[in-house]
Amino acid sequence: MPPASRAEAAQSSGPTLELLVHGVGGTTPQEMLGDPRTTRITGDATAAVYRRTEDVGAEQHPGRHRDGPVAEAYCWSNLTSGNGSRALWLLLLPFMVVNLAHWMRPSTRGHVRTVRLYGVLVRLVALSLTVLLTAAACEVALDLVAWQCAGTPACSTQRSWLGFLSARQDGWFAQPGRRLAVAALVPTALVGLLWYLSNRTWSAYESQRPLTWEEPAGTETDAEAGADEDTEAAAPTGAPLVRPALGRPGFWYGRRLVARLRAAHTAAGFLTVAAAVGTTAARHDRAAGSPVPAVAGHLVEAGLVLCGLVTVTVVCHRGRSERRLDNRVDRAVTTFLPGAALALLLCAVVHAGWSRPDWVSTGALPGETAFRALALGQGLLVVVLAAVALSLYRRAPEARTTLGGLGGPAVAMLACALGGVMTGGIAQRVADWLDGPGTPGMGAGADIEGPPVLLSWQASVIPVLLLLLVPPVLWLAVRTVRRARRTGPAIEAEYGEEHPQPGRTRQIARTRATAALTDAAPGILGLLSAATLLLGIGAVAGSWLTGEVPGLAADGTAPVVESLAETAQSTGSWLTGFGVILFVTWGRRAYRDVSARRTIGILWDVGTFWPRAAHPFAPPCYAERAVPDLSSRMCAWTGSTRGRLVISGHSQGSVLAAAAVWQLPDPARRRVALLTYGSPIERLYGRWFPAYFGRVPLEGLQRSVHCWRNLWRATDPIGGPVLIDEGPGGHEVDRGPLKDPLVYGRTVEHPLPEPVLGHSDYQADPVFAVERAALLERLGPVVPQQAGGDAEGRGGVAQGSAGRSSG
Questions:
Q1: Which residue spans traverse the membrane (predicted)?
Q2: Cα torsion at 589, 591, 594, 598 (round to 10°)?
């Protein structure tokens, strides 16, 4: 910060505030503030700021709080937790994962067109996932149930609930086209549900307008730099200062973009259902003897192609500005596009329901080509995305970037794999259930043909993929054990123990070695993504070359290879069903059990931290509410009291704190110090999202904030150092690794064994209070105000921050 700014901050007159932000585990304001009596200062039941009841109105009496800062607690856990029904969001995991890939773009300067191309490719991959999910629902409802099982007496006889659709009833629904029209309600309802959830969560999150402020003079915005993409440095080297992406006024307000994408993906879902129904009927009409003119089918198909092209065009055009609050709503897109797609779906249903007395459903619907095209298209998009990411990375390489810039393509491949596995496994599971004791597609004993061959091949690669992961997992386990053994002597030397205890040494060493496993995640992900790509190519090739379900020999025999393939297919089908149940179970437990949330919550909160810029059906972004909350509170408090403020963030709360500081205008930022602990801001975010938390953005944050201190432990599996150079004043940001446990054995001051804290209870370390006091000293001394002066009546702070922020 410039010397003039520091001098201005040093002359501050007013109280001192510590704004506490908890981590992923969530906690209560009573626990954070260390007092059972708390009062909500501002906010609602979802997210609010609290302080001790005795500290309400503390700004009017600053002399009573000379011993330390007064504490406020910002509680945001209700943004990501709630009742058990939210666990169903885990079923949208592929959408969340592909949305992450959008933000994993390598850091670069300039090359605006390449940056835009990266965003377009990720959005196209996201669109393909929506089509894939809808196509899977069509495969189950239209093909397996309405076409195959209802059209086969042996299958429909065993399913009484299919009686009104059964061909053997000779009723109104006996014709295949009418059965398809009725079954189309299932995937249509699914698309409608996704639209409803996206619109509802938008009302709760994205519709909250963030703090508004004027762009400082001389600061270049993204539009002036020639980019409408969310790039932190789109201007060429030597251009005027470009505000970091997370500091732009419109970054946390994605109303327009989410509305456009929601309309496009909803239209894509409706068009997929319409294509499944309409093209089947049109194909029959082109055969000789159909009473329905073939031109009707041609008109429906032409409408589908035209509307599909418009949908892809809307997705390719991002339509968002971050340099200001973009309140525009593209009514022509958000209303006309899904409406037109729904109208085409109704036309396709009416066309399929036309009477065709001689139409009989045999075999399976020809969905094999569609699923192959989706699989090949996704693979091609990911490969091109990898080439674009490598091109960006090589122009501005950062050593800490995950997988050499290929983190985004690897995650996009993982999203496609999750979508393919869920599609293939669920379709195969439903087919097995409908076929009863038989095996779909397996000779004379089968009542139905089963799903497309490609889906069976995709289900069969799941066990193979799991087997491929066994060697690296074992290698990591062995490496962790060896690292723990090597660390033992260093730990005993660190504590200076004359009489070391082998058990205590092993406990500390094992905790440190296990915490280091987090840094091995990129390698595992890269291996998983590469194996998924190769196995996916093998599945497409196997289904195309053989045209058979894996495990079924051409001559009806079952050699060892075919037997193993059939076993892999069945195992993959069961594993998929088990995985869906496991996801829901874990999700329900994570939303209800704090300990479980601390275990898996960080992964989920990293995924939902980012705005929905690629997939509108992904779980909502809680930061679009939390970051404006924090920045508004800091700006309002410092402006009204002219006091000093330390924003203190633990774990994921430190990321929210940093993002909120980026959003502050310069006058407010001069009075704010940043204290982070157990922070993944560089270890996770800096490596995986280098364009937004890489070395350049973090160094910019250090220069822009008045002062910053980061505490970390070697036993912490999530937090770590930020690894940036000293600031202009010569003060380092990192302080660590802190001792954990505080003492090795029993002492007079600690007569009972001290626990290994790892990621939690940083405020229990004496270093925390020392570093917080140092930050306040660097902010400048406090000149007491007169009672009744310019103070915020409802704000305030409590002495110290006795509470503990859980992560």
A1: 87-105, 117-137, 180-197, 263-282, 294-315, 336-354, 374-393, 405-427, 457-478, 520-545, 572-591
A2: 90
Q: How many whole angstroms separate alpha carbon 70 and alpha carbon 67?
A: 9
- Compute CA 405 distance to the chain's CA centroid, rounded to the nearest angstrom: 19
Q: Are 491 and 504 in contact (CB under 8 A)?
A: no
What is the DSSP annotation of 100-132?
HHHHTPPP-SS-HHHHHHHHHHHHHHHHHHHHH
Six-digit token string for 102: 């959008």
With 0-12 CB in 10 A as exposed, 13-18 as middle and 19+ as buried, what is 196? exposed
| Nearest CA among 296, 308, 314 for reference residue 269 | 308
Contact 15, 797 (CB under 8 A): yes
Q: pLDDT by residue (tens digit) across 278-312?
A: 998 888 888 767 788 888 889 999 999 999 999 99
Q: What are phi and psi of 649, to 5 degrees?
A: -120, 135
Report d(CA 155, CA 140) in Å as an integer. Answer: 15
Q: How far, CA to CA in Å, does 123 sit from each of 98, 134, 210, 576?
A: 8, 17, 25, 26
What is the crossing angle of helices 255-285 and 337-352, to 10°? 20
Q: Which amino acid is at 605?
A: D
- What is the C-alpha to C-alpha distance for residues 142 and 233, in angstroms, rounded to an integer? 49
From 269-273, 325-329, 717-721, the region with the lowest mean pLDDT: 325-329
Cβ(532)–Cβ(417) below 8 Å: yes
pLDDT digits over 381-422, tens only?
999 999 999 999 998 888 889 999 999 999 999 999 988 888
Say which amino acid occupies 380: L
Q: Which residues of 582-615 are buried (b: 16+ CB within 10 A; e: fewer)?
A: ebbebbbbbbeeeebbbeebbebbbbbbbbbbbb
Q: How far apart are CA 287 and CA 153, in angstroms?
A: 25
Buried b (16+ CB within 10 A) or exposed e, 327-360: eeebeebbeebbebbbebbebbbebbbbebeebe
Measured CA to CA, the distance from residue 91 to residue 93 in angstroms comes to: 5
Q: CA–CA separation, 733 vs 154, rounded Å?
A: 72
Summary count for the chain: helices (H), strands (E): 25, 8
CA 343, 344, 345 angle in degrees (round to 5)? 90
Give the global pTM: 0.86
CA distance 761 to 765: 8
Distance CA 285, CA 297 (A): 7
**For 23-42, what is the mean pLDDT?**
87
Q: Please, how many CA atoms are within 13 Å of residue 670, restricted to the half-sphere of its CB?
A: 16
- Round to whole Å and give the CA distance between 743 and 644: 34
Q: Residue 135 contacts by C-beta under 8 Å, 6 or more apart in sequence?
A: 272, 276, 367, 370, 371, 374, 423
Side chain identity at 10, as an amino acid letter? A
- Beta-ladder partners of 646: 18, 673
22 CB-near residues (< 8 Å, 6+ apart): 32, 73, 74, 75, 76, 77, 650, 651, 653, 805, 806, 807
- The helix, strand and coil proportions of the chain, stated in percent and rounded to the nearest 5, come to 60, 5, 35
Helices 560-592 and 407-434 pack at an angle, to 10 degrees, of: 110
H helix runs in 404-547, sequence order:
407-434, 453-495, 502-515, 521-546
Residues 6+ apart with CB under 8 A from 399: none
Lowest-pLDDT range of 315-319, 576-580, 766-770: 576-580
**CA-based nearest residue to 370, from 440, 452, 258, 462:** 452
- What tokens does 607 get? 């995924």
Tokens 């997988």 sit on residue: 403
Residue 368's closest CA among 559, 551, 544? 544
